[in-house]
Amino acid sequence: MIRNTEEFLSALRAARRASTPLVSIRTADPASAIALTTRSLNGDADNTPLLSWDIMTGLSAVNGPGKKMLDSIIGERSPETVGPADALSLAAKLGDDAVMFYANPQRLWHDPIVVQGLWNLRDTLKAVGAVLALLTPPGSVLPQELTQDVLVIDEPLPSHEDLRSIVRTTFEHAKLALPAEDDESRAVDALLGLAAFPAEQVVAMSLSKRGLDHDQLWERKRQVIEQAPGLTVWRGGEGFADVGGCANVKTFLKSVLDGAEAPRVVVFCDEIEKAFAGTGTDLSGVTTEMTGTILTWMQNREADGCILIGPPGTAKSLIAKATGNTAGIPTIAFDLSAMKNGIIGSSGERLRGALSIIDAVSGGRSLWLATCNSIGSLPPELRRRFTLGTFFFDLPAPDEREAIWQIFTTKYGVQDERPHDDNWTGAEIKECCRKAYRLRMSLRQSAEYIVPVARSAADQIESLRQQSSGKYLSASHPGVYEYNRNASTPKGRAFRALER
Known about the structure:
Strand content: 5-15%
Number of domains: 4
CATH topology of the largest domain: Rossmann fold
Strand order of the largest sheet: 9-12-10-13-11-14-15
Number of strands: 17
CATH class of the largest domain: Alpha Beta
Distance between the termini: 42 Å
Structural class: alpha/beta
Largest sheet: 7 strands, mixed
Number of helices: 20
Radius of gyration: 28 Å
């Protein structure tokens, strides 16, 4: 796994020393990849023939030696008319140590002629030490015919120091005094996850004589994130102060946010059991493949996370959304279903692209929070990746309901006599207040139009409580969740003796 520019350059140099003929560079900025590849030549770029091909401009030279080689292999043809397959045929004529960049082959390698043309170059280029560099976007997957013959190298997005340099250079070009250290750090955090070109553009656009507009920097970052299918940035303003009850899980998550290696991004997976339904049994194998990809990614990145389980309306999603705002970091909603696509291989590419964005934006420090109404269908190996624990959210106790009433009666400006609320969820209290406000009713009148989930789904809640008792942490009280059928309010304990 390549983390920074120096590791990327080192990988390119190693491939060059070994005369690796076919290299796929997965990059968010092809121009940057070409520049870094040239830089990896250790000062020999002026003597190394460099050529480039793309579907619009055809075959062209990147430097002087490249122009001489292009003239020697093109013959009487016009370089602009060289097509995808012809470019590969001409690549077979490359001389010693030459490098040809081939843009966006992932759009072409569904064609058997292109795939065969790429494979045919393996031994030919190796014999002369030449390289064909395939420039592809992050997450691209090679066709099966080429997986054993093409070296894949991922270009990392700009590091903190790279982005710091971009900010300073932009200020210098604008002839403005360099920003204060805190202001510069905030700008770098907002740019983290952008490629060099859009980072330069957004800094320039956000710059004025008053300094940087950090809101504009973050908005550009949100746009980049949301271009990936299945990723959206939560824009709500909820914090832990807007959540009544759930004291234990809020205390725990605050400790995570304030602890060592604090997360830079919260990844929110809502109803995760639905997203991974069919793992191991789906006939297409798409869900199973995507599950394996996430498992591997979370293990390799040592990603932390919590699973939040409980009946609907018990503040699981609200806690997940409020965590990012409480820490002042973005919350990215992760929708696996939206990443699926009917084109073979496309779903996996989308998922890998989304994960690469999360990795870049978080700098390798993401906190995953997944909600579910039933944990039984989740693959055990996926549950184990959420190493920070599983919290059970029961129906709120009387003191928690009182806190929730306070929040929503204040928000909606309805302060009359409250209805009987035994076994209501927080979502039902909110809806009662909202209806009273919108329909100009009293709270008691509004309550007549609400059927609590504790009544409509009593059997499911009872079963969920019994399944969770003694197995998961309590969201409300310290320790393991314990359910007592005869008690009015299930509580947790600080310690629980386990039978051997």
